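To whoever picks this up:

The nightly regression suite flagged Adenine phosphoribosyltransferase as changed. Nothing in the input moved, so I suspect the structure step. Input below, exactly as stored in the fixture:
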Amino acid sequence: MSSTTDFLRAHIRTVPDWPAPGVQFRDITPLLQDPAVFRVLIDAFVQRYREAAMRVDVVAGLDARGFILGSVVAYQLGVGFVPIRKKGKLPFTTVEETYELEYGSATVELHTDAVKGGDRVLLMDDLIATGGTMMAGKKLLEKLGAHVTEGAAIVDLPELGGSARLRASGMPLFTLLDFAGQ
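Regenerated output under the current build:
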């Protein structure tokens, strides 16, 4: 995986001082723009979740970049995909979960018929920062009786504490690379 990790890391753009001074924004757009790079990215996830012990019934993607990854991974695995959206974006009956941000709060929603009790769900996003969005997604899926087998993302930003917080809650995590101390 090391060569894959190095290859993917080389295609992540760092944008200094965005959205605020001192922030090093990790932009995954270059991973998506090049079809060969995008295939390596998706294949890294698909290989993991094709293993019998890691098989899932559904992939859930967090709004919005988790939709890109999750839908393609679900397609490749031959399972369904469900979007976890920001509040007010889903047209049917929903359950919702509010979580804290650095300055305020946000709410995500999921259709009440998105998963069935006992479904094994892979929860995907592009990166893990504070972990709030992924934790809210996990809680939503559990409200409907599903079991989140693992949270997955391209990038972990461990200095922001999200991955440690998610693991402490009992959620297994898989990330392709991290930007610790960088």
